[in-house]
Amino acid sequence: MLIYKNTFENIKTIGLDFPIEDQFYADELCAIVADGITRDPIGLPDFSVVSEQEAVRKYPRPSGAELAAKKICAKFPSVSGSLKDRLVSCNEAVKNLNDKYIKECDYLENDYYGSVAACIEFQENILKYAYICDCGVIVYDDNGNIKFQTIDDKKVNSDPYKSKSNLPPWYLPECRKIVRSEWRNNPNNIVDGKCVSFGALTGEKTAIEFIKSGEVPLSKNDSIIVYSDGFSEFLHEEEFIKNILEFNSEKFENYIDKKSREDSSRYGKEKTLVLYRY
After folding, report:
1. Its pTM surpasses 0.85
2. 44-65 per-position pLDDT tens digit
3. Which of 157, 144, 116 is nearest to 236 (CA)?
4. 95 lies in which domain range?
5. In a domain, 186, yes or no
6. Residue 276 vs residues 85, 132, 140, 225, 252: alpha-carbon distances, Å
7. Domain for residue 141, yes or no?
8. Quick one: how far is CA 199 from the chain centroid?
9. CA dihedral in degrees (144, 2, 85, 67; nearest 10)?
10. Residue 32: how many CA atoms within 13 Å on its side-chain side?
């Protein structure tokens, strides 16, 4: 049963005219959450000298991140096949966006529009899932124990290697260009015998290689969440799990808002959650 679905704004940008770049689609049988990839502000290549207010003023509108996430969530329910096949179709839809808007990719202001995503569908007592990068799926049993969680591929398989690679700081355009051109959707980025790139639905064909999929058997009263990475810091916390098991939408939203404001650097990111109870 579909219990709840919502996107929570980025606490840091409340009161600022910043696009909502998380999107979702959910019905009783399937769901997808898409998290658009943040764009560079226009004409401000060095982030270190830019205030948050100025970055928001110079942020592209329409936002390619918002457009990509919306396109994915519109495409997903309109196509059939395996979940991986449906994400492949979503990737093709993003390619059509980029063909329209990005005449030449520079991996900076004119980087490909893109999004990461996670999706599920129910087939009797089997939960099927597919995802790319750091959107994910988690399953709790009726006691709140974690039965299953997807791996944050970027955090686990890519970020540790990037941190050792002597890249310049992210606020410099040189770093962002290297990461987006060499570390994203690049299956040939091999370190210690394994690929250390991360994936995203940018329309590039190589994105398909970074889509992971599988299935999980479900038991009565399991709680299933599809989420964007803004919820990652919450998922293992006792109070969060208690709120999920004893779900009340008003209480839950107050809890999320309180945590997000108390520690915005950890909990305040834009975040989306779709909750089911089996």
Report:
1. yes
2. 999 999 998 999 999 999 999 9
3. 144
4. 2-155+198-277
5. no
6. 23, 21, 11, 6, 15
7. yes
8. 11
9. -110
10. 27
